[in-house]
Amino acid sequence: MVEPEALSNQTTKEETNMQAIRLTGPCEASALKPVEVPKPEAKAGFDVVQVKAFRVNESEVTSRKGESDGDFQYPRILGIEGTGVIDTPAADSPYQRGQKVAMMMDGLGRAIDGSYAEYCLVPHAAMIPLETDLDWDLVGALPEMLQTIYGSLNKGLNLTAGDTVLIRGGSSTVGLMSIGLAKMLGATVLATTRSQAKVAKLTAMGADHVLIDDGHIAAQVHDLLPEGVDKALELVGTTTLTDTFGAVKPAGKLCFTGGLGGGWEIEHFSPFMIPSGKFLTSYAGEAQDLPAKIFNQVLAEAKAGKLSVPIAKVYHGLSEVGEAQANLESGHFVGKHVVVLD
């Protein structure tokens, strides 16, 4: 028999603790096991969010291995993004209890504890209000990926309806969503892949023209558009940057966002490497760059079947986080790995 006082203590413990993936040092993916930790409490500028789903990211694999930059320190709960509902709003919160939100960046999972948990303490600036009844696995695949893509297309390239845009690295998951979002914004999309077998996938996402990338695609672009494209999104890396510039028309823009091919730097860089009359920028922004209107528009397009979200596999519960990270690290999957907390 449980005495009333003992029952009260037990209830208090259950209410003030939660399960999370908390790292105390570098480890293998198989060591990612949930442990009991204190549930966070709301404070000025921060709300407690009940986590419903989150995507597993390459940067979290890097952090787990102990290879992150200096802003990451152990012990830490991983997770740079997620989706969920407001559990406990702070007194100064713009959100209401039970409201659906996306959360990303702003130190989550690096400088402060992140989303690999039942509950997460989230800065107001890192949240976006959501209006959707879609399943959490689909919603959970989107936040950071969508922020990166929209920021690149909007802030990086100032993409507008009627523009022609080249997505270099179109068969990656970010590339596929870039195609869909660029079409949603009214652009004509050219996209690249190294595999003929992936052409149908890029076409299904909305690409108007798919180019087989052998490392030199500028000539193919000019065969289609003699002047070149208005704008280009570089996802492959610095190894293809010069060729991508060759596909851009005079006064056109190129935004460097990704290094899928491993190239993040240019040795002995000179500004004169930028073709005269063309413009080079980059994108690495924050949650504030993704308006709630755009996020909710993408969710509405997905619900209507007009835009698909590339998901490799859905995992259920914190106990499957290790499997998700291992599968991501293997490189054998196309699409995002999403963990849903049932």
UniProtKB/TrEMBL annotation:
The keyword Nucleotide-binding does not apply. Keywords: NADP. This is Dehydrogenase. Residues 1-20 are annotated as: Disordered. InterPro entries: ADH-like_C, ADH-like_N, ER, GroES-like_sf, NAD(P)-bd_dom_sf, Zinc-ADH_QOR/CCCR. Residues 25-339 form the Enoyl reductase (ER) domain. GO terms for molecular function: oxidoreductase activity. It comes from Lacticaseibacillus camelliae DSM 22697 = JCM 13995. Pfam families: ADH_N, ADH_zinc_N.
